[in-house]
């Protein structure tokens, strides 16, 4: 069996420890594997399955895979902000996927090892696959997202949170691990910037905590998830309701993006606030065009969008940067949130009438 499927051989841990298994993709979206199953070659052939509910949701709802994530793309566009109905839909999709996996696992057992679980249990009352296959979550990740928010606005957490170490990465995602280093806590907590305008605070539940949360019906799972998030916050010395983004000045964000993208603050300002819809490449701007293309900030206009040779438009990521920056642009004189005037390409303060042109 191992030799027949040699390209699928992967490591797996079953009840007896480390061994080899066969790992097959279950679901693909675009060129990305979004769910897989790994079945142990050793009896009783337990399997480990991975799936990402957000990625399955993207596929099911035909939501285009975003192109503007800082590290990966498992997030939804900002307009998906009805948190209660989303969580209910995610739970239903989770439960549906779990049922499908039972059938898939039974099929693999039959095809790979000739084991028909229905026969296996002959004589017992249980007859349906869903009753014969037992599935239990090993680890679940619960994302709590703050929309229209940037990493900087939550940096106060680094000081206030109760944990043994804070580990922060210096890329655009600013991934921060708040480590507790306590084996009895079957949970971890981290925070990172998923994309411009999406700050994700991720609670991971492991082993018994994951099982206690998810082994139930949809209504209880809903309550359990909320309770688990609150519980983890309390353990980390935080109050969920008290987690509020700090107001931030647009110029702080501009310098942050400037460092993150390796562009000057003037280049960032021109991009965000400048009077430019399209850019046409010419002899002088080759350097900046190449730079913006590499950063995923401009793309060629397709033929069916009226594209011409050498004409570029801003990508979705720049539109998001604009949105999140405009939201936090505070007047340097009186600290009122400034409005952006798209006709005159300037920020103006409705309180003290200050105008900033670009
Ligand atoms: Zn003002």
Characterise this structure.
The chain is α+β, with helices and mostly antiparallel strands and 358 residues long. It has three domains: 1-134, no CATH class; 136-246; 250-357, no CATH class. Helices cover 33% and strands 24% of the residues. The protein contains eleven helices and 15 strands. Strands 5-9-8-7-6 form a five-stranded antiparallel β-sheet. Strand 6 and strand 7 (176-179) form a beta hairpin.
Provide a quick synopsis of the model:
This protein is α+β, with helices and mostly antiparallel strands and 358 residues long. It has 11 helices and 15 strands.
Helix and strand arrangement:
Layout: E1 9-14, E2 17-29, E3 32-40, E4 47-51, H1 53-60, H2 83-113, H3 117-120, H4 129-132, E5 139-147, H5 157-160, E6 165-168, E7 176-179, E8 187-195, E9 198-206, H6 207-214, H7 218-235, H8 250-261, H9 265-273, E10 278-280, H10 286-294, E11 298-300, E12 311-314, H11 316-327, E13 339-341, E14 346-348, E15 355-357
Antiparallel strand pairs: 1-2, 2-3, 3-4, 5-9, 6-7, 7-8, 8-9, 10-12, 11-12, 13-14, 14-15
Helix pairs in contact: 2-7, 8-9
Residues 331, 333-334, 336, 349, 351-352, 354 line the site of zinc ion.
